[in-house]
Amino acid sequence: MTGYRQIKPFVFHIVVMGFGILMLYPVLWLVSSSLKPTTDIFTHQGLWPSQITMSHYADGWFGLRNIQFGRFFLNSLMLCLLAVIGTVLSSSMAAFSFARITFPLRNLFFALMLGTIMLPGHVTLIPQYILFHKIGWVDTYLPLIVPKFVGDAFFVFLIVQFIRGIPRELDESAKIDGCGWVTLYVRIIMPLSLPALMTAAIFTFMGTWDDFFGQLIYLSDIKKFTVPLGLRLFLDSSGSSNWGAVFAMSVLSIVPSLIIFFAGQRYFTQGIATTGLKG
Amino acid sequence: MQKYKTYAAGYLFLLPWLIGFFLLYLIPFVASFYLSFTNYDLLTAPKWAGLANFKTMFTDDYRLGGSIRVTFQYVFISLPLRLSFALGLAVLLNQGMRFLGLYRTIYYIPSLLGGSVAISVLWKQVFDKEGIFNQGLALLGINGPNWIADPRYAVYSLVGLSVWQFGAVMIIFLAGLKQIPHELYEAATVDGAGPVRKFARITMPLLTPVIFFNLTITLIQSFQTFTKAFIISGGTGGPINSTLLYSLYLYIKGFTFMEMGYASAMAWLLLVIVAAFTGLLFLSSRYWVYYSDGRD
């Protein structure tokens, strides 16, 4: 019996770890293939490269005529940064209003906001596109940035839930000290909501970084291309002729999400558990 | 007076969201309903077409029928698999073992990266005739088909990619499992219940609200899958429309053929389909979802 008790955790770790490695195997294979000489990628199948080369990274980075991959990274970073600022600012303002201020029609708007979470984006997609087309915003970043500045229902909901957990006595004493609503929002509620704001920021960054669909329909000038569009273009132009370079650029394109994830992991798991986001 | 100041403050903080709600949701929502009864190519004014778009959809568009079939296949095969893997691993990880954080991270990474173009590119290789998935099968003595190029199997490469990303669902299950009071298990042990009985009589019933939540969210998301189908099929939905998920076909109609009216009609059909399944879930929930706080 004691033998069984000692062996059980051991078996457990072997099973869970083994299955985990199996899950990660494709990603590990991607990284390893990007470092192998071209002739080895499909013939020499082991994970450990017999010979490490960085040439695919150079080939990929400079692989498109007239434009380098660095440009796509800068474009994506700029887009993500503005999206994060816009989403966190506007979502937290709406959340503060819903959670702390009483005003007519509040419950109706709150219900409508929850409704927009369930609504498939396709229904509003075409008229939104027509609107942006009419005002001349297609092939600019504006359709990808401006909508972030009106808030995201999911994050409004997340932050509302969080603010509801902050004691109301803080509001009362702040008001006695003569604080207005703006001061209350900036000085008290926002600093205390930091975990929720961080979650929203992390999810927004990663969601925008990977938002292939939106970028595909709105951007057509190659100079404005983002990382997902650049990668797809590169895949089409080099195709199966240069898998090593395609893999190398794929590896680079997932690095920012990984960095953000590991940096904000503490907030992250909390956030997914409360919202069930982005699966 | 003070009251009106408070109202004003409430609306001022809500203003960005309100503007967005009207301009980006409410008006487009109504407009898209109107457009679904028109022909519109973005260059000339929309022409009223009555029910013509819907008539074409139901009687004349064989690609749409195929697309709906493929989407249903994709959704209803990947959904149970994804949830079972997520639940199974969550229960396993919830045994109070060490390194929980590490394992949670490992299983979450596929979900983290899964929506990206890079992973779809990789997946095309994984499911190639000579790819690592078939190499794995070869170790078991199975001769795998050419998953991507064979129309009979192509949709399973999409299913595989979706199931691979069970990590996010698993984390929600883990959070749900943590909520279950430990005393219940202790009491059951005293009464002589084994692990299977404890799972069936304690874990499952108390987890039904979380299962319901995960089912709803995954269902709505799955119906809207786009990137993987686009990248794996090179934007065509091929071979022979076997990866033509609904969103991809809607994109092709709206943005390749510029049939904005038809694409709007398709969007409304999608809304009806998703609403119908979500509605069924909600209706069924009163028979199988158990709320321990006595809420009915």
Summarize the structure.
The complex is a heterodimer of chains A (279) and B (296). With 279 residues, chain A is mainly α.
Keywords for this entry:
heterodimer, A: mainly alpha, about 75% helix, globular, B: mainly alpha, two-stranded antiparallel sheet, about 0% strand
The portion of residues assigned to helices of chain B is: over 70%
Report the portion of residues of chain B in β strands: under 5%
Helix content of chain A: over 70%
Tell me the span between the first and last alpha carbons of chain B: 42 Å
Low-confidence stretches of chain B: none
3D architecture notes:
The complex is a heterodimer of chains A (279) and B (296). With 279 residues, chain A is mainly alpha-helical. Chain A contains 15 helices and no strands. Chain A has helices at residues 2-35, 38-41, 55-61, 69-100, 106-118, 122-134, 142-145, 153-164, 169-176, 181-192, 194-209, 212-218, 227-238, 243-263, 265-275. In chain A, helix 11 runs antiparallel to helix 14. The two termini of chain A are 42 Å apart. Chain B is mostly helical. Helices cover 72% and strands 1% of the residues of chain B. In chain B, strands 1-2 form a two-stranded antiparallel ribbon. In chain B, strand 1 and strand 2 form a beta hairpin. The longest helix of chain B has 34 residues, at 2-35. The two termini of chain B are 42 Å apart. The model of chain B has no long low-confidence stretch (mean pLDDT 91). The chains are: A mainly alpha (279), B mainly alpha (296). At the A-B interface, helix 1, helix 4, helix 5, helix 6 and helix 12 of A face helix 1, helix 3, helix 4, helix 5 and helix 8 of B.
How are the SSEs ordered, and which strands pair?
The complex is a heterodimer of chains A (279) and B (296).
Chain A: H1 2-35, H2 38-41, H3 55-61, H4 69-100, H5 106-118, H6 122-134, H7 142-145, H8 153-164, H9 169-176, H10 181-192, H11 194-209, H12 212-218, H13 227-238, H14 243-263, H15 265-275
Helix pairs in contact in A: 1-14, 3-14, 4-8, 4-11, 4-13, 11-14, 11-15, 13-14
Chain B: H1 2-35, E1 38-39, E2 47-48, H2 52-59, H3 62-93, H4 100-113, H5 117-126, H6 132-139, H7 154-164, H8 167-179, H9 182-190, H10 195-223, H11 227-232, H12 246-256, H13 260-288
Antiparallel strand pairs in B: 1-2
Helix pairs in contact in B: 3-7, 3-8, 3-10, 4-8, 8-10, 10-13, 12-13
